Amino acid sequence: MIKSIGYAAFDALSPLKPYSFDRRALGATDVHIEIAFCGICHSDLHTVRNEWGGAKYPLIPGHEITGHVKAVGSKVKKFKVGDTVGVGCMVNSCGHCTCCKEDLQQFCARGFTATYNSTDAEGKTTQGGYSNHIVVEEKFVLTMPPHLKLENSAPLLCAGITTYSPLRHWKITKGHKVGIIGLGGLGHMGVKFACSFGAHVVVFTTSPHKKADALKLGAHEVVISKNADEMKIHLNTFDFMLDTVSAPHNVENYMSLLKHDGTLCMVGASPEPHQISSSVVIRGRKNLSGSLIGGLAETQEMLDYCGKHHITCDVELIPIQKINLAYERLLKSDVKYRFVIDISSLSHK
Ligand code: NAP
Ligand code: ZN
Questions:
Q1: Considering every ligand atom, which ligand is closest to the CA of 314?
Q2: N or C: which end of the chain has fewer CB within 10 A?
Q3: Is the peptide bond before 58 cis (omega within 30 degrees of 0)?
Q4: Which CATH number fits domain 160-290: 1.10.340.30, 3.40.1010.10, 3.40.50.720, 3.60.15.10?
């Protein structure tokens, strides 16, 4: 057993608190990682507050993990002590189903083992990255690009791959008009990738004060989505829209901005259902789709792409003692553009 400490939620309402627990002993194909940084994803907040159901307390969130290899099991081939590594939303999957064989572990027929709030092969609940140590099966450990700062690259492990994957799947490139809806952790990475792939990028935000940032991130246009006149200018013009909004909102308004045969891809996971009338998809043969993180090979491809093109996340680094305040600010869309926890702060009194 590996003695660990972290910050856990004990129910859906109370603030997160320090928690001591054991990680499993290192197995032959395991990598023991000393965690340096962990991003704060809105999914952490949805899960902790049990907005999606199924929360298992005590619950240590965190699936945007970067750190250093502290030890490796006897059969580990890819990593050695001291390597800089990352762990995203998955720590295992069945490995045998069609999806796993196609490197789409996120769609594993048996359900992948999530980094936290999941049940592992030993029947224990997994615990995430708001903690100092983690033990992960070698296959689910990613190599971090050597020259990117670990605090700025931690959110690539979820916000990065969740936006990279659909933009690649729908082959976004020069000549496409792409909308990014919501400028938060996912949204700001969506802007960076869509611009990097050569698209004409329009950000839709409810926060007028984010307009200048959106342009600085590379967006070509910004629409304040509460302004009907600004929205109308873009009717029937988009090839693709990526919807990253974390709360209920009017999806039909955005579908009406798609060109015929255009696609709106949901990545935001509002706990409340959305309403869509049939005519919105019928007229213009429009597509409403979704996407979930990305497989291991694609996540490594995304990290390598970021290393090559110097793409990282804009982060606000916080000590873990500020986690509850960060959650309050996240709920108010008040973060530029990802909180990342400096895990060394766990030793602060
Ligand atoms: P975030 O940083 O909080 O960003 C969400 C953004 O949505 C906000 O910054 C805000 O942007 C907008 N927004 C929030 N409330 C809104 C409302 N009531 N109406 C309209 N817009 C609103 O969250 P995130 O970490 O990027 O995550 C976004 C969502 O994606 C979450 O639901 C999360 O669970 C989900 N997610 C899904 C996957 C996947 O694999 N599909 C992976 C990770 C996360 P503006 O201020 O610009 O309006
Ligand atoms: Zn996430």
A1: 1
A2: C
A3: yes
A4: 3.40.50.720
Q: Please check whether residue 303 is in contact with residue 86, taking contact to mean a CB–CB distance below 8 angstroms.
A: yes
User: Ligand 2 centroid vs 236 CA: distance in angstroms?
Assistant: 31
Q: Give the DSSP H/E element, type plus range, for residue 70.
A: strand 65-72
Nearest to 317, CA basis, from 328, 326, 309, 308: 326
As a whole number of angstroms, the distance between CA 106 and CA 99 comes to 8
Tell me the pLDDT tens digit for each residue of 262-288: 999 999 999 999 999 999 999 999 999
Task: Assign 349 a pLDDT band (cuts: 50, 70, 90).
Answer: low
315: helix, strand or coil? strand
Q: What is the pLDDT of residues 113-163, one digit of tens each?
A: 999 999 998 899 999 999 999 999 999 999 999 999 999 999 999 999 999
CA-nearest residue for atom 30, ligand 1, is 268
> Where along the chain do the CATH 3.40.50.720 domains lie?
160-290
Q: How far is the CA of 131 from the centre of ligand 2 (A)?
A: 16
- If one residue of 42, 106, 188 were mutated to test the ligand 1 pocket, choosing by the most ligand atoms within 8 A of its CB, it would be 42
Say yes or no: domain 2-158+294-347 is CATH 3.30.200.20: no
Does residue 348 carry a pLDDT above 90?
A: no
pTM value? 0.98
Q: Which atom of ligand 1 is nearest to the CA of 266?
A: 41
Q: How far is the CA of 328 from the centre of ligand 1 (A)?
A: 14
Q: Which helix (H) or strand (E) holds 200?
A: strand 200-205
Strands 258-266 and 238-243: parallel
Alpha helices in the chain, H assignment, sequence order: 42-48, 98-101, 150-153, 159-169, 185-196, 211-217, 228-232, 251-255, 278-282, 296-309, 323-331
Domain ranges in the chain with CATH number 3.90.180.10 = 2-158+294-347
Q: Where are the alpha helices (DSSP H) in 178-313?
A: 185-196, 211-217, 228-232, 251-255, 278-282, 296-309
